[in-house]
Write a structure and sequence with these properties.
Layout (H helix, E strand, L loop, with lengths): L3 E12 L2 E13 L4 E5 L6 H8 L8 E9 L2 E2 L5 H7 L4 E4 L3 H4 L6 H10 L6 H14 L5 H4 L9 H13 L5 E5 L7 H18 L2 E6 L2 H7 L2 E6 L2 E7 H6 L4 H8 L50 E4 L2 E3 L5 H15 L3
Parallel strand pairs: 3-8, 3-9, 6-7, 7-8
Antiparallel strand pairs: 1-2, 1-4, 4-5, 9-10, 10-12, 11-12
Helix pairs in contact: 4-5, 4-7, 5-7, 7-8, 11-12
This protein binds iron/sulfur cluster (SF4).
Length: 337
Amino acid sequence: MALLEIRDLHVSFATRDGIVHAVDGVSLSVDRGRTLGVVGESGSGKSVTALTVMGLTRLPNATIEGHVLLDGVDLLALPGDELRRVRGKRVAMIFQDPLSSLHPLYKIGWQIEEAIRAHERVSEKAARARALEALTEVGIPSPGDRLSSYPHELSGGMRQRVMIAMALVLDPEILIADEPTTALDVTVQAQILDLMRALQAEHGTAVLLITHDLGVIAETADEVAVMYAGRVAELGALVGVLDAPEHPYTWGLLQSLPSADASRDQPLHPIEGTPPSLIAVPSGCPFHPRCPYVMAVCPREEPALLPTRPGHTVACHLPVPTRRRIGAAVRAPNARA
Ligand code: SF4
């Protein structure tokens, strides 16, 4: 059994403008020590899926259906106080902007100690020793001094290291990382991804990595879910999805990546059009208004997510040989070197 299994998840929000169908029938799973990368543009439902695992979409205007099983226990069925015990301790999360998660008025050491003491009965001294150990493990220089620093005194990369330290200090089974490197420059981004990989290898943590950047997925993930309009468009092992992509939306994401040997001036090919409104999701295949390969059936019938190879599923009406032919041509110039 997978450590985390999301089964047929539906999340919608009632708003003044109508019902926002943020997640529509998503099923995903992550095993211990593995990384599932979830990629898509904004509005694809990837962040709402992650927030729902953490119980952070339990809002008065939200309707949540389906199952989020952690080691067989349905987190969606847990009462709030039990879920709070799971959150932070067994499932931890880091966000794009550490400043939104770190309190600006408290010293870093105190914040990490509080994270520990919220879940475990430990002395102040023991909590401080664990905080110091955590800052050391994530490579913060002079960690003893940094315990007394305020968040604004650190660079963006160092703040993200502090967030990772705070997330991992309780040794969670799952780390959810929502755009963890988006706000960082390329060099620091690579360092943070390296750090996450090293810590994962050391602790055996399962990682659910949410990003709009297929390049980050290529560096980090074992499995990939490509999401569009609240649904999974393509799902499979990293190598299968990047080297033999079969969904036109995945092709679009790959073609909008700079290739390894591209000159700085080489134009990229962004996907035409904009992501759909989740209040009025297009009928049939939700990608049809933007799809260069749209057929008559596409606006009429929603394609099911079906196996195309072992461990690789795709939701598209195009015949499999056509998808494979086009996919092979797409990956050649743009996929990983
Ligand atoms: Fe394009 Fe049709 Fe496939 Fe959707 S089902 S991705 S519109 S070809």
